[in-house]
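User: Need the bound-state model for fe (ii) ion:
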Amino acid sequence: MSTISNKQAASFPVRRMDYEFDEMPKYWCDDEPSLTHFFTGLSTLFPEGESYFVRSVRALRSGAKDNPELDRDIGAFIGQEAMHSKEHQAFHVSAQRYGLDPESLERATGIVLKTIENLFPKKWNLLVTVGLEHYTAVLVETMMRSTHTQMRDETVRNLWLWHSIEETEHKAVAFDLYQHLYGQGLGAYLPRVTIFTFSLALITMMSTVYHVVLMKRDKQLFNFATWKRFASFAGQHYKTFIPQFMAYYRYNFHPDDVDISEVVAQAKQLIGLAPEDTKAH
Ligand SMILES: [Fe+2]
Ligand SMILES: [Fe+2]
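Assistant: Bound-state model below.
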């Protein structure tokens, strides 16, 4: 008889972090209001967004009890996302000092996601998570490849790199749970791509609104020079994002189709994580 041990490690670790953002300058991304507020706006989606991801996975986790490896990775996924929420909240507390009130945007995110959670069945809530995990996996690749070099404050840069590394480590967990529960047929594919389209539109709309709100709060709404800088940044990156988002519509798509382990290894080196740091501890 084989023995299944839950004491085995997950395939990636949950790291305890405790960043301090006391020295954070006002415009920590490229000295540009538009770039800084874009990332702050994105960040305000994380605490409530990641807590929603955790609830959506937890609601269906019992269906993975017959797959101990997947169940262990779900545990590590929950641990990583909870830690991301905590550290981004600490980051928002520091941004508060510049009069940006990111916590009000966190609360708005919470209201939107609670409404969706109550309206959608569990399968669809899981699919929002699966879709947004792909969206995140695409964005963090660029963060690790290039965007981090524009982050002037080392602590803020480390926060984004650490988060990017872990998003890559757990990018397949929600997807694997979905396939484990619902298979790979047309009945799994159609809702997967439909909810992804909805999720992509939702996150694009919310991050755009938050970006504008933060620019307004900082009295930079009519700073056309900085908007121009952002337009060039966005234009350059969306050229690579769009085909990567589209990959999700392939019938046989799997998050692990893309291997960026070399990029992750470089990012780990930059923030002082050991390259072999891949098992839970
Ligand atoms: Fe996260
Ligand atoms: Fe994630």
